[in-house]
Design goal:
With 76 residues, the chain is of the alpha+beta class. The protein contains three helices and four strands.
Length: 76
């Protein structure tokens, strides 16, 4: 069975700058969803990943609904 779009998005990597030194940090969207702590390999600063509005958790569902609406319009 295929993974849901929401589950697939959790494995996507994104780059964010370290707030201390600007070094690029590669994090998984799953880490953002879990609001994990990452360590900058350059300056060793601890960076708490925050998702205050839960946008990473609902992004997959929102995209899936938009895809379904687009196909519904094409087929119906």
């Amino acid at each position: 069975m295929a993974k849901s779009l929401s589950t697939q998005l959790l494995g996507v990597e994104t780059e964010i700058p370290c707030p201390g030194c600007g070094y690029p940090l590669w994090v998984l969207l799953a880490e953002v969803t879990a609001q994990a702590l990452v360590l900058c390999p350059c300056c060793r600063r601890r960076v708490w990943l925050r998702d205050a509005d839960g946008s990473t958790q609902i992004a997959g569902d929102m995209i899936q609904r938009q895809i379904e609406q687009a196909f519904k319009g094409m087929l119906g």
